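For this section, I looked closely at the sequence of one protein beside the tokens encoding its backbone, which the following lines show:
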Amino acid sequence: MSRARIISWIAPIWLASCTLPLKDQNEIGLPTNSCPVDGDLGGTCGPEGECLRGLCRPTQAANLELVFLVYRSQLSGRGLLQPIPIFAIPPLEQLRTLARQGGNLDRVLPSLGSLSLSLLGPDPAKSASTSARGCFFAGQAPNRTLPFHATLRPSSSLRGLPLETFAENATDPNKISPAFDLRATFSIPPATYDLYVVPAQEDACPIPPLLRTDLELPDQLSILSIELPPTSRLGGTIQANPSLDLSSWTLQLVEGHSGLRVSTVAGLLPSGEGRWTIGTPYEGGISPLEYYRPTGPGGVPTGTLFLLLSPPQELQAPRFAWELSSIDLFGTGQIDLDLGDFALPSVSIELRTERAQPLGGQSAWVWFESLLTPGSLFQAPEGAITAFALGPLPTDLQGNLALSLPPGRYKVGAAASSNERLDLASGSFEFLPDLQDPSASLAGFSLQFLPSPSLEIPILSATSNQAFAKVPFELTSTHRSSTLRSLFGLSGVTPRGAAGQTSPDGVLRAGPDSGVHDLVIRIPPSSGFPWLVKPSVNIPLPFPGALRVSLPVEVQGRILDPVLADPIRRPFAGAWLRAFALVDGRYIPIAATPLEPNGAYRLLLPSQL
């Protein structure tokens, strides 16, 4: 069986954490968490700690929602490396109580599940109702399996965790009759997945992709056969300014949450006087856009569909989108859209990027994005979502840039092209043509670069003023582009983070871009302290002096393998356990530890974020 990994979703922090030193690092003078007298409150362990079994522990802890992941080097002897999610983890407050009482948190890993997936062609007797062209598989036997490509990715409740997306092509497992026994077989951790199936395309009869959401796939064999249902159809017309040529533009339906295409791709045919008919010509006539509505458990329709009108790749023009329910109110499959007077007029602008100190031009890369708000583009059609993106574009050595854009309101960002650490520059401008002289170039727009914020933060122990020297840290931007913005190519300029080690005197020195970042300082477990984690740090707002590493919530136990129960067989050699906290809709890594070969572990979790 072939197995492709499409997306690993593993952030750079995890790449770094794989090299977490395991030896005792106190040789470089790290503070240590230790105390001499059990039950000592407010003494050695400070006002918020107590001594228990030789370790300072917190008297209170934040109530966090946690997810543990296990990364195994071997899964039931199959030699696969992939993360296994473990759920039903108690909140951190319960873990603190559990740790104080000396209990263990054991978990039995689920066995790998197996999914056998096939796609069935329609009964030829129903082919006329299956496709507008009435040509799907004419003359073929009923229940013929079709070639396809399928993708499984974690459902929305798990998205953002470093879990894999699995992809397979349908093949004949028995090598007997590819025409009648095509299927894709997945070996996956049991979880909730979204399934996206793209049938192999035939030029004469294209088939829309299918999207099934929130599939519960257990730790056993699941056999799923999907029979192609009749397609839904969307036709009608688009009225446009006669000067706007839509002959090479395309229409498709996308699911709003995932951004996945769920329809065929249709073109536009001229019908005279600026009117265009939706459809693709074929020998028997014109085929409208065809689609399958995404469904959730029980076949219930789910998601929001957007009709996306896109220019050809070589044309610098906006994209348009309409929510399907707003333009096909009664589900008739016939729509009549109006682009109004939108005629892609261009406005010429001149922009300059500059340095604050020393004064002068600064070469840079510049991005342009029309704001994703109603009316952000001049003469955009009412009721449509419209946006335009361009860049990155290089300035000259003096920071000058001249270009033409569709008129409207834009967010403009720039990153300096020199090696000097300069903060990202950004601004919002309105580029509208001069009504007295539409051919005139608009000048006087500028972006100013400032030095990157400079952070100097002592990292201190929770129980003393000792500093943590030479410990690794990461500042990672929280910027994430929404699906809708991504559909329009509006990715934005992501603030650059920073990574490194604290200095020999225990000070974090870094120059990240301004913006919101997650700060993670990976304190070695040999110190007896947890990682220091500060989500959503707004830089350049100053920190209130030093940052103190919190006292740890100690969690220990065993991860048990349901297949290889004999520890002599070392089922967890080289495996890791990693913990994430859900903060502001994002999963933040808060701890990691290697598993012993028999599955034993000890995690030190931060009691405060």
In short: The radius of gyration is 29 Å. The longest strand covers residues 191-199. Residues 92-100 form the longest helix (9 residues). The CA atoms of residues 114 and 221 lie 5 Å apart.
